[in-house]
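Backbones bend. To wit:
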Amino acid sequence: MVEFSNAYTYAVGALLLWGVWGIAANYSVERMDNMAVLLVTYLVGVGVVLALDPGAFGGVEFDAGLALSVLTGLAMSLGTVLFYRALDLGQLSGVTAIPALYFVVAFAYGVLVLGEPVSASQVAGVGLACVAVLLLVQ
């Protein structure tokens, strides 16, 4: 039986699903207004959360976690608005590559603010990923 407790297994699943999301979003914004697509996307997201965990709202506490969750939602939603608009204006192959580099922001934060250790190969990987995206958008 396949073990699904490894973080990288879940990460690969996210990669595949986000790939489908990018493709589906591209077709969606061709057929509907960007904001309507965003609304439907997040309504479905709420439905998925409630289907997976009907008691999810019971875990909401009015503390710093809630404030950070609100910030997370704002960043994700506004980023998605920009992503859908970019898809509406550009080509799928190039547009999806640029925001896929979001990990560079998190990597830099982890290293510079949180003081996480970094290796030369990690820095090279980030650099090569950036070069790859530059080549894709040419």
Observations:
- The chain has two domains: 1-86, 97-138.
- The helical segments are 7-31, 34-52, 64-89, 92-95, 102-112, 120-136.
- Residues 59 and 66 are 10 Å apart (CA to CA).
